Amino acid sequence: MPLVALALSGCTGGSDQPSPTASGPAGDCKAPASGELSDGVDVTGEVEAKPEVSFDTPLEVATTQRTTLVQGSGEVAGQGAVANVRIAVYDAGTGAEVTSAGFDEGQQPTQLTVSTDYYVPGIVDAIACVPSGSRTVTVASAADMTTATAGEQAATPTPVVIVADVVSIVPTKATGEAQPPQDGFPTVELADDGQPTVTIPPGTEPPSDLRIEVLKKGDGPVVPDPANVTVQYQGVNWTTGEVFDQSWGKGTPTPFSTDQVVPGFAKAMIGQTVGSQVVVIIPPAEGYGEAGQPSAGIGGTDTLVFVIDVLAVA
User: Fold this and answer.
1) Dihedral, CA atoms, 95, 98, 99, 100, nearest 10 degrees?
2) What domains are there in the chain, each with its CATH number?
3) What is the spatial distance between Cα 28 and Cα 305, in angstroms, rounded to a whole number?
4) Are 159 and 57 in contact, with CB atoms under 8 Å apart?
5) Exposed/middle/buried for 17, CB within 10 Å: 0-12, 13-18, 19+?
6) Rounded CA gap, 38 and 33, in Å?
């Protein structure tokens, strides 16, 4: 169903980037007000348990409204933050469930970025400015359930009712225990905000095989294969020592699927624990291959180095 893709799938733009295909400031928060429609939705059940939802149908929704059912006391999901969320979406016309994430038995919360660069406004409105530990119910207008991405052909949007539990806010940097660095790897220095500076060993040839070191060991869940992983990352060309791509400075960590990135990047994430920071040396065969990535200045013989902070997994 198209709504599922629009509502719960990340929709990043900028496909020309050489991507290896937290909380934002609460002061930037803009949340919809409650109203008669959102107040009239009956939601029962504990936070983080699948809700029972009922409302009069069909709901005629002109403007998005949101009511806080349970007020948490944790960190606030500010603009650009990545939140661990359990969420269910219902058709406002029929009351039928459209989709849900994070509520099934054994299922981890899903990660949603508080930004319309990634999700339709109705989904963002359901979690924006919400303290973790909270449950909200949002009645989203049809207009707020359509994407504004240029060139995308979306199905006719439908108003929906959204129940969202904001479980926690994803950290913006790795928080694991420091590990001793290994010989033969570039040195990594971290700024206070976690952004790395990578120095390639001068006058050294890169190894011909894939190599991975752990600089911080987290104590969170293990990344399975496949998985959707939220990371901070920086990519450096061993040949030039220059950064060719990174999430740092973009205002939010980046979600990736392990089956949609270059093989070496995926291998560096799979099997790691959330909270870890890893360095991976990727030879061409495990990276962009003989074609390289000319738009990023990567040749077919260039070895790549990535520093990856593993922040969340779903």
Assistant:
1) -10
2) 2-169 (3.10.50.40), 177-313 (3.10.50.40)
3) 34
4) no
5) middle
6) 9
CB 159 within 8 A of CB 140: yes
Q: For residue 2, give the amino acid letter.
A: P
What count of residues does the chain have?
314
Per residue, the 3-state secondary structure of the chain, as one string, reads CHHHHHHHCCCCCCCCCCCCCCCECHHHCCCCCCCHHHHCCEEECCCCCCCEEECCCCCCCCCCEEEEEECCCCCECECCCEEEEEEEEEECCCCCEEEEECCCCCCCCEEEECCCCCCCHHHHHHHCCCECCEEEEEEECCHHHCCCCCCCCCCCCCCEEEEEEEEEECCCCCCCEECCCCCCCCEEEECCCCCEEEECCCCCCCCCCCEEEEEEECCCCECCCCCEEEEEEEEEECCCCCEEEECCCCCCCEEEECCCCCHHHHHHHCCCECCCEEEEEECHHHCCHHHCEHHHCECCCCCEEEEEEEEEEC
pTM of the full structure: 0.82
Q: Report yes or no: 39 and 70 within 8 Å, Cβ to Cβ.
A: no
- For residue 263, which phi and psi values (nearest 5 degrees)? -55, -40
Residue identified by tokens 């406002």 is 92
Please list the pLDDT of the chain residue by residue as tens digits (314 residues). Answer: 233 334 444 443 333 344 454 455 555 678 999 999 999 999 999 999 999 999 999 999 999 999 999 999 999 999 999 999 999 999 999 999 999 999 999 888 999 999 998 899 999 999 999 999 999 999 999 999 987 544 444 467 899 999 999 999 999 999 999 999 999 999 999 999 999 999 999 999 999 999 999 999 999 999 999 999 999 999 999 999 999 999 999 888 999 999 999 999 999 999 999 999 999 999 999 999 999 999 999 999 999 999 999 999 98
- Locate 173 and state its tokens: 């940097």
Q: How distant is the alpha carbon of residue 93 from its chain centre?
A: 30
